[in-house]
Amino acid sequence: MALFDLVFPSPEGKFTIHENTIKRYFNHALRRAGLRQVSFHSLRYTNASMRIQAGQNIKYLSTQLGHSSIKITLDIYGHLFNDVNFNRQQQVELLENSFKSVRNPLENTPLMKEKGDSLSANPLIFLVAGTGFEPVTFGL
User: Fold this and answer.
1) pLDDT at 105 (0 to 100)
2) CB atoms within 10 A of CB 124
3) Which contacts qualify for 130-135: CB closer than 8 Å, 24 or more apart?
4) pLDDT interval class at 130 (50, 70, 90)
5) What is the pLDDT of residue 47?
6) Nearest Cα to Cα of residue 30 among 18, 22, 17
7) Closest CA to 109 of 138, 130, 95, 139
8) Model-level pTM greater than 0.70?
9) Average pLDDT of the chain?
10) For residue 64, what is the DSSP state?
């Protein structure tokens, strides 16, 4: 590994012991920058928090953080999604739009062509073709 691959290399350009890195380099860098002393791990938390706030895909972020599952990421950072910008109406509109992408192809089926058909008025329709079962509808 080359010297430029390490953030805080030893004077010989090799890996350093974590405690030595914190004492010799990290805390010194914080003081020189005029920042308060924080744990090294807080950099990771801050990075993840900023990426969530920016709207980065949570699955991608989970992979980048090295978590074995998205559940771990959500368990640790899930509280950051409960912000004041949450808009229930916007969430409902997003849900309705996702149904439109599913509903539109069904509207062109032979069962949906007759006007006045009660099925065509319902946004959620599940058809099981060729099974002999009646279509199941769910109202919103």
Assistant:
1) 55
2) 13
3) 135/111
4) very low
5) 92
6) 22
7) 130
8) no
9) 75
10) H
Neighbours of 5 (CB within 10 A): 8
Section 103-111 average pLDDT: 55
Higher pLDDT, 122 or 63: 63
Q: What is the b/e burial string over 14-51, where b = at least 16 CB atoms within 10 angstroms of the residue's CB?
A: eebeeeebbeeebeeeeeeeeeeeeeeeeeeeeebeeb
Give the number of other Cβ atoms within 10 Å of residue 62's Cβ: 20
- At 83 the pLDDT is 60
How many residues does this entry show for the chain? 140
Residue pair 16/10 in contact by the 8 Å Cβ criterion:
yes
Give phi and psi for 90, each to the nearest 5: -65, -40
Smallest CA-to-CA distance from 85 within 51, 46, 47, 54 is with: 54
- DSSP assignment of 15-63 equals ---HHHHIIIIIHHHHHHHTPPP--THHHHHHHHHHHHHTT--HHHHHH
